[in-house]
Structures are given as structure tokens and as C-alpha cells.
Amino acid sequence: MKTNRYTKWIAVALTVVLLMRCESFDEMNQNPTTSTNMDPNIMLSTIQLQLSGSQFEALRNGFIYSGHWMQQWTGEYSSTEYGGKCIRNEAYMSALWVTQYSREIKNIVDMVESTRGDAARVNINSVSRIMKVYIFSRLTDLYGDIPYFNAAKGYYTGTYAPEYDSQEAIYNDFFKELDEATKAIDATKDKVTSDYYFEGDLAKWKKFGNSLRLRLALRLTKRDEGKAKTEAEAAIAGGVMTSTADMATMKHTKVSWNGGTFGGNAVSYVFMNQALDAEKSLFRICTTFVDHLVSTGDPRLRLLAGSYLEGAKRPNDITDQVLAKVGSYHAMALPPSYFTYEANQLGGAVEVTVAGAPVQVTREYQSLQPSRWISEIEAPYIMMSYAEVELWLAEAAFRTWNTGATAAQHYANALEAGVKEMTVYGAPEVAQNVISDFVADNALTAGQELKQINTALWVEFALNGQEAYANWRRSGFPALVYPNRDPGVNESNGQIPRRMQYPQEEFDYNTANVRAAVALLPAGKDDWTSPVWWDKQ
């Protein structure tokens, strides 16, 4: 019955998406002049689907740029050409902005405003406010100052060209909204329906809101550690995730509609050549990432990546045979910024046996691709994991903030949970003794705590390049060195950029306000080497 329920609402949501694609950008860039008057619960399910089901921004912002800079996945042409050489592409940089403002933000602002002050809908209002913070946090973390307070409020305030708000003011409002929203949740009031994350479980929504507050609090450690501590301890006191059962997970499926197949996880679309049921992936795991997984004995390596031959669902797993021939996982990964079609230059073919017959495998297919589990189109998407929360708690405890346990205990909890949560993707369960050995072998070391905790977050965000990029800018870990593939082409002064530049459409349609925002950037220039507010240099 659960599958039918998902299919029904996904079909509804996809219809909305397809209709929106018919709009001109000028129409999409404007604030709505009327309220949708839709049931906010139905709007909730549509938003949840779009956040993890749209490959457009997942590829451009999640993999071509921020994800590639984090050196977890490489090998696909656009990511290595633009991300690997740091070449500016306005359409790629603006992808998250143009999709979120025209789609999720219009709907989430309407949800919040249409239920504001309605005692009969206090829970859906609270959920809407939590989701609003989640959506806007992704944008401001990537771009810096953005339209926030008056964004998408044309129907309610008559504001059609919203000004840009400072990231500091936006973050202060995030904390206020999450505090009020989580405290307002009341199990005796209205039910939240059509909810893919928690199926209306209000206790889990409360934990999600507080866990999000904890994440955002840790963002401030370079800018205002006192404020970070206050907000983190308030979030912890309110109740954060305490097990993998609390994770915010979007379950995906694919459905037939109008002669085609739709639905599915955007990350899986990206991995599998942006096509359903593709027979091969253009992405490969990066040597930087695989070397870390090997050095720590992380059991997730074989759950995240494998060597495959082409074929529907990639049934021919040749990982063990290739490993025996080439001698190391390092030899089965690609250096940062190598295309898959260049892989053959790195070594000769090896012979393996498939169905009893010898097969010559070129370097391209020896290389470790995204695993069959994480690249399955119907794979779920984890919006926020319990392991992530435990890592935030570990850092908070290291900073001597009140978390209720030691940094070492939180860190151990996170490593164990990070391995166990892979079963969400349908990956095989790792034996408890293997997990226990992994945790014991990687205990926190005095003087290395921040490096270990934040490098573990880098691993945890293996499928969420934007979050990996945000925490790397905040923490400086892992200590990534830009590969500098082509210094003659590089457009970031040989460094990993610190933000995305504003879309050209903003200069066309919201000219005065975007220019005012740019004037506040270093040298008054909209440049991707300029840090956002919390990324204090």
C-alpha cells in the first residue's frame, strides 16, 4: 500500500513540475500575485519530491561544482571540465537559485503565510516553517546574501522585486523560526498528511527541526562561537535525532506517465548518465576519497562504489577480480578531474571471468563507479541523517558545549550509524563485529578531533555535495588541495571557490537590489572567490 501511496502523489507532483516547465523564466522569476489556495499538505509532498528529485540543480550545483571540488566523485565531462578547471558557467552556477525561487520557495512561502495564525493548522504551519528554513539555508549557504524576508510574497505584501537580506539577519531568523516552530508542534492538534519524510510523525518533525538548528548553529563557529553555542545547546535541549529511525528520508519510485517513465532520485539520475535504466555511469570515485576510506578501513567503500560492466542494472560486479589484478583500490579510482574516457591512459586492460567466459576489461571499467545501490533510480535520498547529527554533537562536545555525552561517544555513535544507514539504499548489512572494529580503530585522537569529526562529515555527505562544500568552507577539513588540472584556464586564482555568483536573470529583473548586494561584496564584485558571511577568513 505504501508504494501505491507514493506513486499517486508523485504523479500529482510531476504534473505540477511539467506544467511549471512551460512557463517563461520571466514568469517564474516574479513573486506570485495570487495564493494557490491549495491544501498545504499536498503542497508539502510536492516540495519534498522536488527537493531530491530534480536532477537539474543536483547535477549542476551538487556535482559539477561543489561536489566535484570536494573530490569525492569525478570522471563525468561537465564536472571535470567546469568543476575540474574552475571555469565559470552562469547556467551551472545559477541552477539552484532559478529552480528553488520559482518552484519550492513560491510554494513554501504560500504554505507558511496561508496557515499563519490559524490555530486549527498549527502543525502544518510549523512543518512549513521548518521546511522553509531548510530550503533557504541551502540557498544562502551557496550564494550569501539573498532575497529572504520579502521573497515570494507578491500576493501578501505586493512586493515583486524583493531586496537582498544579509546572511547574518537570515540566520538570526532561521533560529527564531526553528525555535518557535518546534515549540508550537502539538500532537493534539491537526494531523500532517501527505508527508513523505516522516508520514506525519510530529515527534520526528520536532527532532528534524532541532537537528537542522544544530547544523546551522555549527555554521557560525568561525563567525560567532558564542551564538553558535547558544543555538546548539537550545537545539539539543529541544531534542535532536537519537537513532537512524529519526532520519529525514525521501523515498523515491518511478512511475509511467504519458508514455514515459518519471520519478526517482536526482542523485541516481546524475550517476546513471542522467537517464533511467542507463547501463553505465560516467562518474567514478575519486582517489582523494577512496584513499581516505581505505586508510580508515571504512566498510562503506564497497557499499558506495564498485567495478561493473555495462548492462541493465549493471549485474556484472567485477570488483574483486579487478582488485586481485591491479592490487589496490587506489589503482581502481580516478585522480581528480580525469574524464572516464581518459582512464585508459592510466593502465592496460585486465582479464576477468564473467559467466564462465574471459572478458578483457579496460581501465574505464576497472574504475570504481557509484555502486548499484546508491545509483538505483528508486534509491531513497537522505535529507538529514542521524550520523550527521551525532557528528555535530561530537564537535559541540569537543568545544565543551552541553550535549549529554563525550565527543568520543558521539563520534563512535556517528561512525556506527553511518555504516548501518547504508541499508536504507538496499545495500547488504555489514556484520556488527566489522562495524565495531572500524569504530575502535578510528577513535578520536587528542589534537586531531576537529580534523577527524569534519572529515567524517565529508564522508557522510558523499551523496550531498552542497553540504560537504558548506562544511568544508566552515571547518577547513579535509585539507583539500585544488588539483589545478589546467592552470592556463583556471578562473579562480588556483583556489577552490567560496560561493556561487548571482544569476544573470537577477541583474535583468531585480537590477537595483542585486547591485546593492554586490556592492557589499569585497571590491564590490560578484566573484566566486569571495566568502559568504559565516565563512570568516
Automatic annotation (TrEMBL):
SUPFAM superfamilies given in the database record: TPR-like
Keywords, comma-separated and alphabetical: Lipoprotein
Record-linked InterPro entries: SusD-like_2 (IPR041662), TPR-like_helical_dom_sf (IPR011990)
Record keyword Lipoprotein present: yes
Protein name from the UniProt record: SusD/RagB family nutrient-binding outer membrane lipoprotein
